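Notes from the 1:1 (GR / supervisor)

We went over the backlog. Supervisor wanted to see one worked example end to end before approving the batch request, so GR pasted a single chain during the call. The sequence is below; no edits were made to it. Supervisor asked that the structure be written out right there so they could see what the output format looks like.
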Amino acid sequence: MESIMKKLLLILLCFPLFGLAQTIVDTIPQNKNVLLEEYHGIQCWWCSYGNAVAASLNSNYNSDDFVVITIHSGSFAVPYGNQPDYRTLFGDTIHDYAFVSLYPSGSINRHVFSQYACTPGYTPIIRNDWGYASNEILLESSPVNIGSIAHFDSLTNELVVDVELYYTDSQSVNNNFLNIAVLQDNIIGPQEDGGSGTQWTNNNYQHNNMLRYMMTGYWGDTINTISQGTLIGKQFSWTVPSDINGVPIVLADLKVVVFVNQHKEETLNVIEISPIGIPIISNTVSDLGDLNNRRLVRVVDFLGRETSIRTNEPIFYIFDDGTVEKKLIIE
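Structure output shown during the call:
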């Protein structure tokens, strides 16, 4: 009996995750998480070093505390000849508003750090100061908590994102702006390199955290009621194309970043989640060693947050073919 109980019970979902009665956002006041918007271009000689610094910071902080969006924009992002075009409809507008003057540079929570700013009065700072600015942000309390669940509906080819905001404190402004960015990992392609890049595969570069789309437009969806104790619920959807500018979209490599700004600047909080798919109904029992040819790319909990493999609670396995399995390991 004990050996049977240690087998893996595999139950695939047959309902969308957003139809939940309970809220998905915490109501306990929290400190801010860090959002690094890294300005990047494939012609930029030292931008791979910026990627390496961002990856190092990401590994040093708790996984929920630090989020990276890599924005291919500006003159260094213009492709040459047959190179792929990693730019988006949104990147250059965000880049130009930030007034990017040095590469690689990035904005931390779109806050103006006077002691670190590349250009006085603007948000971009150089890579060596990202950690210092991040440490400052992590000590600040946030007036808003974010909860979100994203799922891909294979029947409509839509990515559906449900968001809940809970305001734990008041603000001096009258409204906020909710932003939803769709990112993609594991895009293999060209990249100029000054000797600091660590993400090479067969002479090509592995681009991660690449901005692909903004589901809420350039500057976000307006939130008009932001008083303390307010709970906001919203749903957004995007019909996912097969490619953007000829660069394929791989569903298994997508992730969603949700952040709230006071306007075009001042990010109050941010979270990153992994979309959950809607697979076929199946009820099978298999041993833990029963593997197939699919490659496991991510393990997440019910809220789409990356997690380790656990027992006695449901977790979701996301594979490289785009399928998602809900598994419950019973001990």
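Supervisor's comment: The first strand starts at residue 8 and ends at 11.
Batch request approved.
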